[in-house]
Design brief:
The complex is a heterotrimer of chains A (about 260), B (about 375) and C (about 290).
Chain A (H helix, E strand, L loop, with lengths): L1 H27 L15 H8 L1 H34 L5 H13 L2 H14 L6 H24 L4 H9 L4 H30 L2 H6 L7 H11 L3 H29 L1
Helix pairs in contact in A: 1-11, 2-11, 3-6, 3-8, 4-6, 6-8, 7-8, 8-11
Chain B lengths: L12 E10 L2 E11 L4 E5 L6 H9 L6 E6 L2 E2 L10 E4 L11 H11 L4 H14 L15 H13 L5 E5 L7 H18 L2 E6 L2 H7 L2 E6 L2 E6 L1 H6 L4 H6 L4 E10 L5 E5 L2 E5 L11 E6 L4 E5 L5 E10 L3 E8 L4 E7 L14 E6 L5 E4 L6
Parallel strand pairs in B: 3-8, 3-9, 6-7, 7-8
Antiparallel strand pairs in B: 1-2, 1-4, 4-5, 9-10, 11-12, 11-14, 12-13, 14-20, 15-19, 16-17, 16-19, 17-18
Helix pairs in contact in B: 2-3, 2-4, 3-4
Chain C lengths: L1 H5 L8 H28 L3 E3 L3 E3 L5 H6 L2 H33 L6 H13 L2 H12 L4 H8 L13 H26 L2 H9 L4 H30 L1 H8 L6 H11 L3 H29 L6
Antiparallel strand pairs in C: 1-2
Helix pairs in contact in C: 4-8, 4-10, 5-8, 6-8, 6-11, 8-10, 8-11, 9-10, 10-13, 11-12, 12-13
The chains are: A mainly alpha (about 260), B alpha+beta (about 375), C mainly alpha (about 290).
């Protein structure tokens, strides 16, 4: 009895989680403008989307930003995770504490602090400021992802490589990387998604010459309803679904 | 202790005043040790005695807080592991799981940027030596424990290191395989003529394989000597107990004879025992070390220490007996079968007397006694 | 001598290690520590219409935070964030427990389904809620069609809408740490408690709740902190009527250009975060089990 109650409850929560997304996707293919009555299947909102030059530019900017963020964060985050896992050094606890605080900080606090810094330095806001900020808030998540994989890693393998004459860099390239690349890829996908999803930090970091997708969506959804956003949302959903499946597959395949 | 250093001109590896602390706790202190070219030397001790740390310092994975490590006269303390002409066989082997056996063995040469043709011939030679030629294309997880062990050895010696470091390499193998690998390791050492520094907590392994044994306890060298010295003439109670089975009878020095032999009161009997290695003074508490195979059991009417047989166990080549002496302690005696009396045995509870072959005893100062 | 002096800074014998440590420390100091110190500094300065700030020290910004007008905004924002957090906990606690008691074979799939929305753009999800709640949206149309109401009800641009949005976006953050403590909760402990004569309710109170406390606090932390700052949810679902602390900070920085005041508000948010983190660590120490965040 209570078993079925529990299952029913789980099902209900999942339904509530997915219902809005489902509605969004369905109405992306609706031929009329209404968000409640079905006017037949149509691609027209997707067409409108792809014909919207400025929106497409913003989307390209965002993809570029997300890919750069993901790549750089993956590199820095991996190096950091390796250092945390392998070395004893002074201030290690402080470093871990700081990463934890970055992860927990409300995004808006980080956003205004970086804004203050960049204005003080007289930096032009735009791609670079966005990139630096995005890397900073993605960093702890990637460090944690890679660190979790590394902690199952036998340190003696690295020592064996060093013992056999490999430099620190050769050890990374020939032993560590081939073994932990799934975690790196998962970290990359996570960074990509976080960057593409971010509204708060981007609001503060963006400059006049560099429009990004989340902010475009933001200004579109603030005003009212627009089926174009439905179409865009469906596309983004598809993108994140693909990257999540990919990362899930990679991480679970490695374990077996 | 006869000093081997005087026999050979200069040591290959020379450790002077090595010390290491982790979080303020001393793991090793003031280690002095000379290791000679071609020697098989074993670091023996219980877990936590510092033997692995010492090995890791030689390999370059730990930096000593104090002291020097000289290899052929040059200090190598600051040298990173990849620049040291020493190689390691790791505990649990640490084979690269994503590489084949061939690639594992070739790894060290690849790092040297050796030409591919030379790598091929040398790896093939090495695999032939460890009898794994037909397994070259396999991954480590497709091999048995003993085979993995051989790959680990091949991988480490292919670079022709001056010294091979082995960190408990046999501990993951079962008893029979361990015996085989012990012989195999000795063979490889003879063939290559490389110095072996071997770490183990298994005293039997240490005694049967080594030229010399270093017994470590709590970060210090308790004794350095040949297996025979360590077993028969231990320098301390710790060594006596750690290496082999030990019967330790309590005694007190009653007097010292002119020839250095000592009068000792042992459980109510005064005995004349061999000269101790330490300066003995009358009234000093001592322990008399007797190995089980030194003990002799006699019938109750013979002279000796009276007692009763408590346990009896058949060990194949020997018969072991635990005898509770009337004076208190239990002692362990191993007697070899006497072919003239194949049915010879003691019953449990049977009264016996215990003696030993004169001058086979070894005296140790009683560190346990209150000063 | 010279090398010994510089070794702590850059060890030439281990260039890789030193390089990595330099990189990460440099990054964190330049882009985390320094900016935050800057904000703290700015919060004690005066506002300047031309250069954002004037260099004269004042506590005025903090005093203004306690001005009834702003205090009201803060308290309402806090109230909404707390309400959203409590609701997330009420929904998430039985949910995480339920998932942890499903056959192990199904658990990865269920967790996967939970993470999918987390990987989905949160603006898009907020917009999805808006679509449902709008005056001519699905819910209103449905209610009119079945005859429950004759006129669309104002669902959108209310506090309720903002809270629904916050719950919808942040629920996975509550469930993930809860699930991880429930999965570690050993069945034999519950059995032991029952064996010792505890009723189900008492087992729950004296064993389950204390054991899952770190997950509860971690989850609350992960929901409450963002909930106060997610200005776009308030914007999209609350119109201009509902303000969160995040909206105040944002408008002070980007619209009113009153940096010192915005900085003071942000410092307050950070202090709140620090206190919550402290509570989290306390509870973890008590149960001695770390929750994977």
């Amino acid at each position: 009895m209570s078993r079925w109650l529990l299952r029913g409850y789980l099902a209900l929560v999942y339904l509530l989680l997915y219902l809005p997304i489902l509605v969004l996707v369905v109405f992306a293919f609706n031929d009329n403008r209404s968000a409640y009555s079905w006017g037949g299947f149509s691609w027209r909102w997707f067409e409108a989307l792809f014909n919207n030059r400025s929106l497409m530019d913003a989307a390209l900017n965002s993809l570029l930003l997300a890919a750069s963020t993901a790549t750089l964060t993956m590199i820095i985050g991996t190096l950091t995770a390796v250092a945390l896992q392998r070395y004893r050094f002074r201030g290690k606890a402080a470093l871990q504490g700081m990463l934890f605080v970055v992860m927990m900080s409300p995004e808006i606090v980080m956003a205004i602090s970086l804004l203050a810094l960049f204005i003080l330095l007289g930096m032009q806001l735009g791609f670079v400021s966005l990139l630096l900020a995005h890397i900073t808030f993605c960093l702890p998540f990637v460090v944690i992802t890679v660190y979790a994989q590394l902690s199952g890693f036998d340190n003696r393998l690295m020592e064996a490589a060093r013992d056999l004459g490999a430099s620190e860099w050769q050890t990374l390239r020939t032993v560590l990387l081939p073994m932990i690349w799934p975690a790196l890829l998962a970290g990359w996908l996570l960074g990509f998604t976080l960057s593409l999803d971010d509204v708060v930090v981007s609001t503060f970091m963006t400059g006049p010459g560099f429009d990004v997708l989340p902010l475009r969506i933001y200004s579109m959804v603030r005003i009212g309803l627009s089926p174009e956003v439905n179409a865009l949302g469906a596309l983004l959903l598809l993108l994140s679904l693909i990257s999540l499946m990919l990362s899930h597959l990679i991480l679970t395949r490695k374990r077996s | 202790m006869t000093d081997a250093a005087t026999a050979k001109p200069s040591p290959q590896l020379s450790l002077r005043g090595l010390a290491k602390r982790f979080d303020g706790k001393a793991v090793l202190s003031d280690i002095q040790l000379d290791i000679h070219d071609g020697e098989f030397i074993t670091l023996l001790g219980p877990s936590g005695c510092g033997k692995t740390t010492l090995l890791r310092m030689l390999a370059g994975f730990e930096t000593p807080d104090e002291g020097s490590i000289r290899l052929d006269g040059a200090d190598i303390v600051g040298l990173p592991p990849n620049h040291r002409p020493l190689n390691t066989v790791f505990q649990n082997y640490a084979l690269f799981p994503h590489m084949t056996v061939f690639q594992n063995v070739a790894y060290g040469l690849r790092m040297e940027r050796c030409p591919a043709a030379e790598i091929r011939t040398r790896v093939e030679q090495m695999l032939a030596m460890v009898q794994l030629s037909e397994f070259a294309a396999r991954k480590p997880h497709q091999l048995s424990g003993g085979q993995q062990q051989r790959v680990a050895i091949a991988r480490a010696v292919i670079k022709r290191p001056r010294v091979l470091l082995l960190d408990e390499p046999l501990s993951a193998l079962d008893f029979k395989l361990r015996k085989t690998m012990q012989l195999e390791l000795k063979r490889i050492q003879r063939e290559l003529g490389i110095t072996f520094v071997f770490v183990t907590h298994d005293q039997e392994e240490a005694l049967s394989m080594s030229d010399r044994v270093v017994v470590l306890n709590q970060g210090q060298i308790e004794q350095l000597g040949t297996p025979r010295e360590v077993y028969e003439r231990p320098a301390s109670l710790f060594v006596a107990r750690f290496v082999g089975e030990a019967n330790l009878l309590p005694g007190e020095i009653a007097g010292v004879a002119d020839d250095g032999r000592v009068q000792v009161d042992v459980m109510g009997q005064r005995m004349l025992l061999r000269r101790p290695f330490f300066p003995a003074t009358p009234g000093q508490k001592v322990k008399i070390l007797l190995r089980p195979e030194d003990m002799r059991l006699g019938t109750a009417d013979e002279s000796g220490f009276p007692g009763r047989v408590l346990e009896r166990s058949y060990k194949g080549s020997t018969l072991d007996a635990v005898v509770r002496l009337d004076a208190g302690p239990d002692i362990l005696a191993s007697e070899f079968f006497d072919e003239d009396y194949p049915d010879f045995d003691h019953r449990r509870g049977e009264p016996v007397t215990v003696t030993w072959v004169p001058s086979w005893e070894w005296l140790l100062p009683d560190a346990d006694a209150p000063v | 001598m010279l090398t010994r002096l510089f070794k702590p800074l850059f060890d030439l014998k281990a260039p890789f290690r030193s390089g990595v440590l330099w990189l990460i420390w440099g990054w964190l100091i330049l882009l985390v520590l320094l900016p935050n110190l800057l904000v703290i500094g700015v919060s004690f300065l005066e506002r300047d219409p031309q250069d954002f700030i004037r260099f004269s020290v004042t506590l005025d910004n903090y005093r203004r935070l306690f001005d009834p007008l702003y205090l009201g905004v803060f308290l309402r924002s806090l109230h909404m964030a707390v309400l959203a957090t409590v609701l997330c906990l009420l929904i998430g606690y039985p949910f995480a427990w339920g998932v942890s008691r499903v056959t192990p074979r199904w658990r990865p799939l269920l967790m996967f389904l939970l993470i999918v929305p987390f990987w989905t753009n949160s603006l898009v999800r907020t917009y999805a809620i808006k679509v449902l709640l709008a005056g001519n949206g699905l819910i209103n149309s449905f209610l009119i069609d079945v005859g429950l109401i004759s006129q669309p009800v104002q669902l959108l641009y209310t506090e309720g809408a903002v809270i629904i949005g916050l719950i919808y976006v942040l629920l996975p953050f509550m469930i993930l740490p809860l699930y991880s403590v429930f999965e570690q909760l050993r069945e034999d402990l519950l059995a032991a408690s029952a064996d010792l004569g505890a009723s189900r309710w008492r087992t729950f109170r004296h064993v389950v709740i204390p054991m899952t406390m770190p997950g509860v606090i971690a989850g609350c932390l992960l929901v409450l902190l963002p909930a106060m700052g997610m200005f776009y949810i308030a914007d999209v679902l609350g119109g201009s009527r509902v303000l969160l602390v995040g909206n105040v900070i944002k408008s002070q920085f980007l619209d009113a250009r009153d940096w010192p005041f915005g900085a003071a508000a942000s410092v307050l948010l950070t202090v709140a975060m620090a206190l919550l983190l402290l509570a989290y660590w306390q509870s973890v120490r008590r149960v001695r089990q770390q929750v994977a965040l």
